[in-house]
Each structure stands twice: as C-alpha cells, then as structure tokens.
Specification:
The protein is mostly helical and 168 residues long. It has 4 helices and no strands. The longest helix has 62 residues. The chain starts with a helix and ends in a 10-residue tail after the last helix.
Length: 168
C-alpha cells in the first residue's frame, strides 16, 4: 500500500510539474510576444533583419517600404526648395519695396523744399519756410519709424524659430 501511495504521489508530482512547465512555456510565449511587439528602431528604414521578415510575410514588401521612404525624402526636398524659393522672393519683394519707399520719400522731400522755396520767394517767407520744414520733418519721422520697424522685424527674424523647419 505504501508503494501505491508513493506511485500516486509521484504521478501527482509529475502531473503538477508538467502543468507547471506548460504554465511557464505559456508565460514565456506571452513574454516573447510582448518583447517582439515593443521593438523600435531609429531612422526612416527598418533594420535589414526586419525587412527580411517583411519579405517572408509578403513578397517585395521591403522594396515597397524602401520606395516609400525614397518618395517621402524626395517630397521633403521639394518642400524645402519651395520654402527657400519663397523666402528668396520675399526678400526681393522687400528690397523692391524699400527702394520704392526711398524714391517716393526723396521725391516728397524735394517737392516740399521746392514748393516751400517758391512760396517763400513769391509770397510769404514764413509760409514757405513752414511748408519746407514741415515736409522735411514729416519725412524724418517717417524714415525713423520705418527704420525702427525694420530693425524690429530683423531682430525677430534672427531669433531661433520654434517651429523647426527641419521637421518638414
């Protein structure tokens, strides 16, 4: 009777060990799935081993992934070129605007001096000097105001941009 109890205990122990082993295997399988699901890589392309695994799932998948990355990179380059072209056009437009401002400002100054001089010579020296000096003072204030505004804009454009263009 001792032998049969001992055999039953051994059987129970073996069954328990097998159940424990199967539980451990199931846990290992679950852990390996978790580990596989959390693999990450840096860069635009997955590592070659991952590309090979994609090919085993579906043929030519790695070629499709590589061509997708190439198209994306080409798009980024085109967008950067457009951005640079737009910035160049903006700079040219601002330069042309400054030239026109200077031409018109000079014209207004010359006209006010000439008209003030004519009025001072012909009719009233006081009115002529007032017209000439008012025109020049207005031009000086406008020049200083525009100059300060341009300096402020230049200072703001020199500050680092928080919307990094590199992420485009």
């Amino acid at each position: 009777m001792n032998e049969s109890n001992s055999d039953k205990k051994t059987e129970n122990t073996n069954v328990e060990a097998q159940a424990h082993d199967s539980d451990l295997k199931q846990i290992n399988v679950e852990l390996s799935h978790c580990i596989e699901a959390s693999i990450e890589f840096m860069g635009k392309l997955p590592p070659p081993m991952v590309l090979q695994q994609y090919n085993t799932i579906h043929p030519n998948t790695s070629d499709r992934i590589i061509s997708m990355v190439e198209r994306e990179q080409e798009h980024k380059h085109k967008m950067r070129e457009k951005l640079i072209d737009t910035q160049i056009l903006d700079m040219k437009q601002k330069s042309n605007e400054r030239q026109l401002e200077q031409i018109f400002g000079f014209s207004i100054g010359v006209i006010s001096i000439i008209s003030g001089s004519i009025i001072a010579i012909c009719k009233s020296p006081l009115a002529g000097s007032f017209i000439s000096s008012t025109g020049l003072i207005c031009l000086a204030f406008i020049f200083l105001f525009v100059h300060k505004k341009q300096q402020k804009n230049n200072y703001q454009s020199e500050l680092p941009n928080t919307n990094s263009a590199d992420k485009i």
